[in-house]
Amino acid sequence: MTEEAVLPRPISRRFIRLRLPIVLLTLVVIVYFCISIVTQIRLGIVGLTELSDPSNAQEILEVLPNTSASQLIRPGDRLLAVDGWPVRFNVDWYNFYPRKDSFELTLQRNEEVLTVSVLTTPPALDELASRVILPVVSVLTWIVGALILLLATPRNYEAWHVGFVILSMAVVLVGIAALVYEIPGGQTVSGGLMTIAAVGFAELALFPHRNTTSRSMRRFFRVAYAGALFVSALSLFDILVLRPMGLRLYHLTGIVPLRLALFY
């Protein structure tokens, strides 16, 4: 048997042409989230919890001290609207306005509905330092993944696999950081990619060499990827379709997509 006969099948040319656009797209997403996390401002409200009632209100659990909000808002108040727009489970979209100095909040306190103007609070230096940790890790991870992917030869399937897994993990990391700081799109990215990246990472850790993977395990991971895609689709449907309508998948079906992925 010749040496050529035992070589693995090369990656398709169409897929190879997509390599650079994918690398650049992930870079754009990471840069967007990094800039957003650093420049984001807060209303001084933390600990919002969603209430399953017709008003789609969110209860305020905590107000940051020494902020404009602490003088006007009390824990237990229900947040109904921001600048006249109903919250509808999407308060994070109003938390990112780098050039906006104040917000008008509509609150319900007991039976009273009141409107207050809250000044935004720029981040302190120590908070800013803590914000950049995950974005920096994400950028370094992206550099490693991008280099591996761009230098991978068409027949080096393992390098392609490693490159894509590392790129996806870089995006998930910055997406989680964006979710923590309520940056628009953070939940969409982290929820949409987390399960797929987890399956890819598990396959890479358990079977780093494709030629040592049995057919049954390859079949198992195909099913796992299909399940991850299903969970990701549920997450995106919940975030992009149901939430703007003031609905939640959990309230309609009792299903939380990420818990479904973790069997929890």
Q: Can you put this structure into words, describing what you see?
A:
The protein has helices spanning about 15, 20-40, 125-130, 135-150, 155-180, 185-205, 215-240, 250-255, 255-260; strands spanning about 45-50, 60-65, 80, 85, 100-110, 110-120. With about 260 residues, it is an alpha+beta fold. Strands 1, 2, 3, 4, 5 and 6 form a 6-stranded antiparallel beta sheet that branches. β1 and β2 form a beta hairpin. The longest helix has 28 residues, at about 215-240. Mean pLDDT is about 80; it is low at about 1-5.
Which labels suit this protein?
alpha+beta
Q: Which series of helices and strands comes N to C?
A: HHEEEEEEHHHHHHH
Calculate the terminal CA-CA distance, rounded to whole Å: 51 Å
What is the typical, i.e. mean, pLDDT? Answer: 78
- What does the radius of gyration come to? 22 Å
What overall geometry do the principal axes of the alpha carbons give? elongated
Q: Please give the number of β-strands.
A: 6
